[in-house]
Amino acid sequence: MIFIVSLLIVSSSFFLLRSGSISLSLMAALFSPIHASATFSA
User: Residue 26 to residues 10, 11, 31: CA-CA distances in angstroms?
Assistant: First the structure.
């Protein structure tokens, strides 16, 4: 039971980190297209 809850927390935090990095890449695209293209290709 505890293992399932911790697994849910880890997966949700990983999803938040992914969406956060995507929004950071979009914000970087507004300021620096070269940096954004490097972020999306990586």
Answer: 24, 23, 9
At 33 the pLDDT is 61
CA–CA gap between residue 6 and residue 28 (Å, rounded): 32
pTM above 0.85, yes or no: no
DSSP string, the chain: -HHHHHHHHHHHHHHHHHHHHHHHHHHHHHH-HHHHHHHHH-
37: confidence class by pLDDT, cuts 50, 70, 90: low
